[in-house]
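Moderator note: this is an archived Q&A kept for reference. The question asked for a predicted structure of one protein chain; the sequence and the answer are reproduced below.
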Amino acid sequence: MKAIRSNINITPHGGAVPILKKIKEFGIPQVIRTCLGKRVAQSTFGYEDILIAWVLTSLCGGTRLDHITNLKKKLSIIPGLKLPSHDTLGRGMKKMATETLTARTISNGAEGKIVFTDYDDNIPMNRTLVKATKRAGALTEGRSYTLDIDATFIPTECRGASRNVNDKGQIDCSRIGFNPMVCLIKELPVYISMRNGDAGARFQFKECLENCLNLLDESKIKIGRVISDAAGYNKEAFEMLDSRGIKFNVRFPFTKKMETFKKELKKCNTWRKTEIETANFFWNCEIADIPYKMHDRPETGIISKTWRVVAIRIPTNETFKLIDKEESDRIESVKEKLRILSKKNVLKKPGKPYNDTNWKEIDGYEYKFFITNDFKRASEEIVLEYNKRGNAERQFSFMKNDFGWNLPPFMNMNENTVFLIASALANNIFRGMVNTFKKILPELRLNTRLRDFQYVFIDVACALIDKTYVFYNTGIAYEKIM
């Protein structure tokens, strides 16, 4: 067989062609220009070129800024596509950064130390993220969404990462990095507030949430419910959400100092037996609703609203023996048999157990509590809704591994805020494209990971012949999209 040299330019990332076409059709470049403005006249690349270049780099498998260098060669067949060098890409992102602010707070410890925390919300970039996500078809008007808010730690030793020094003058190496607070709608980050790595989980929770809701309101995206872990236990945030007609579901952080709640808990006589199945556990427990007011001080005129605390409880081993000794002995006998079989290596070895540390032991029972302003949903539904928030942790893992969040490229915190939001934009456009193409190409899965999407859709040979794109060796009907 004789090899023949061809002068036809072929790109191995042919799937980027219809994606770029849809990005332009959806008007995403215009959205970026509207939100971020124009660069100086002598600039070759506008902000829209910088962000779209990073979106294409991410969708083609790039996680570092210098990966765009190789991509420029591979996408050179696309007429009019402006891809900057990695140096220009970095400088362009830095130009989108806003000023880092510092907040002064008092720690909750016994000594009450003054703590200074750096943070950066970058409202223009977050506004761009929301509006472009909507244009990409990932968010739509007329639907009521659930917003999940959580923080994630990003380890990095860049210059802008804080370094905590303990009383002995030693640096706490476990917390060198950033701790951004992220608002998510399903798998879509819609707001990112960057913070120091040692920032408390509750730092400016209400301000972050309110900024996010305001930007979503601008784009007419309705939020019906908000879910948060115990960091969201915030009186001002609860009242703000309730005044907006938004239901919240937050893990109630019980402490021994909550004497008022302990009294209400002891008075509760509405316990009923139920079964709740989660992703990791099957709880045969009791459940009840307890009315609760936060910081109600009539002598000072501070009157709080009454919220609903949903409580589930399971008896400790000692309590269970007193309640039902026969059943307790039977279960212990079964456990002993399993332990013997396990020592003989007869049983299949279990995987790493899920460590649930949120149970609180009170008077012979282990409790979990959830506070909400939703008085209509069944108690079991409130518990199950909260337990679904593991989606946030999964999405953080996707963002760190697929979109480069674990590799912040810049020295300063506010510049890395831009990078995180730009990568979130790439994720959201990716999700919007999958939703769009699924209507035409049934072989695409709505829950596909980026790696699978690259293998199935992006990595296909494509050539531009007589102003027509020709795709080779693929079963996907790209011509339907083009």
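Archived answer notes: Residues 253-369 form one domain.
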